[in-house]
Structures are given as structure tokens and as C-alpha cells.
Amino acid sequence: MAEKVIAFDHLNARLRPGGTVFGSTLVQGGVQRNPAARMLMALYNRKGIFCNEADSLDSLRSALAERYETFHITSIGCAALFTAQQPK
After folding, report:
1. What is the pLDDT of residues 13-46, one digit of tens each?
2. What total number of domains does the chain contain?
């Protein structure tokens, strides 16, 4: 996930005071995945459609904590939805 979170740094350069960064991502670690999700994620990673084999809820949490004073993550299955405010 390290190469992906650089996007936050680019967004912060354009974020207005009081603005919110938000988004979602599919993670593999730290979440429950049913057999269909595991199979599809493996297939999509193998084909190069996804590149999230090493992505986890903890790595997202760390990236947000490193860059923002305030953030929130909600996970729904393997989807992680996040908001973040107040860049550090």
C-alpha cells in the first residue's frame, strides 16, 4: 500500500482548510472475506486488475494516522471506506 498512499500527499496539496479527503479501497488483511471474495481477489490480482495482496486495514489506518489529525475508517466486508481531515 505504500506506493498508493502517496496519493494522499498529492491531495493534501490541493485540500482547502476544513476540507475532507474521502474514498474507499478493497483490502485483504484485517477483514473478513467470504470464499467468493477470496477467489475473485486472487483472480483479479493474478490478472493484474487488482494490486492489493499486501493491503490491509492496518496499513490504511497507519497511512491515514501518519498524514491526518482526524480520520475514520468503516469496513464492510473487504471494503474500507474512509474520511480524513486536518492534514499534519
Report:
1. 999 999 999 999 999 888 888 899 999 999 999 9
2. 1
